[in-house]
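**User:** You know discrete backbone vocabularies at least as well as I do. Would you mind producing a protein record, from residues through to fold? Write it directly below this note and I will take it from there.

**Assistant:**
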Amino acid sequence: MTAVQTGASELTGRPRAVAADPAVAAPVPAGPDGAATESRPTVRRCISGSTDDFARDVWSRQPMLTPRADPAGFADLFSADAVDELVSTRGLRTPFLRMARDGSVRATSTFTRSGGAGATITDQVADDKVLAQLAAGSTLVLQALHRTWPPLVEFGSRLAAELGHPVQINAYITPPQNQGFSPHYDTHDVFVLQIAGTKRWTIHAPVLDAPLPDQPWDRRRAAVAARAEEDPLLSAVLAPGDALYLPRGFLHSAVAQGDVSIHLTVGVHPITGVDLARELIAVAAGDPELRRSLPMGFDADQLTAAVRAAAARLADDLARVPEENVAATVQRTQDRLRADTRPQPIAPLAQLAAAAGLTGADRIRLREGLRPRLTDRGDRVVLWAVDSSLELPAVVRPALDLLLSGTPVAVADLPGLDADEQLVLARRLLREGLVVLSPADDRGPAVS
């Protein structure tokens, strides 16, 4: 096992004899200086080299350190000022933040209090308590920023679309010379994006390869502790603009250096082969023989025979999965990504005003990150979004197909409809939050 590096750092432990291990590919070559011109520009901000090389050689296989992954840094995504604003003026409540010190999570009462007059809540962030905790060496964790901080809502949605897997984003703010959490592994992949300060990361090989959500590190504390005593795969100090990719399972810990460190952890919750297998196994519920009760009073020998018979029956069922079941599994998997990714925020009052004043000259486009789908139902079509559906006459199908491609279009250019029908459809889609007004220079969202 090795770690891919695209710049200088301290590599300790096993030699990088990649040719001796066919499971480990050659290092990803350096790419253009920060250019984000590929089909996956958001992923490109987090790595060096091409995204195709990353997908083939690195994704889910090995860590990758990229000094100055984005030469411009990540200040457009997050900053120290953003931390202060979220803590001081946004009224955050748990679980949107937590604090930890020396590997242990702090009690919520140490950084929250009542919401004040007229409020019944007791877990609103208290900025003075957060200040005291930071001064004492605690790490502040701002959670689910992909839902609460606008630049990261957009970044997370685009990254999820490019990766094809749901994304969450947390920020970690650690005082100098402090460690928030002890060595552990995650059950999701992460991109670490260093925002401010510096932090030393120490990476060890997995004790369990590609762990699933029900295989957390705290069930393997002894093995994790023992592995953390071994020579690391990688030890490197991340500075602003640096990025580190860690597949799930790799042990890691991090210590802030001489300044307050701020980094984003972009967690990628992968859709795995096990997820697909579970969906397919659900097909077995349609087999009446597998639904039958086991014999009365069965003993161990009978149970063993029943297990073998069920396995054979299941294998036979899976070998003959109808195409409609395959298609349904594909659809449920895509629905999971849709449900787990927040689409572009919309302003309700502005949407209503836009619908009321809409003209044929106005341009509209699909709301970014929505990923709706269309199905035909006789002389109607159904437009499915995150948790809603909209049934419309089939005559609007060409217009919907154009909008679902992500292309911004003038209302008057919606195909297959007369002027009144164009306005009726566009206003309905605006009121449903499915499309937004598009400025003249808007090229539209990335659609996957």
Remarks:
- The domain at 4-78+138-270 is CATH 2.60.120.650 (Jelly Rolls).
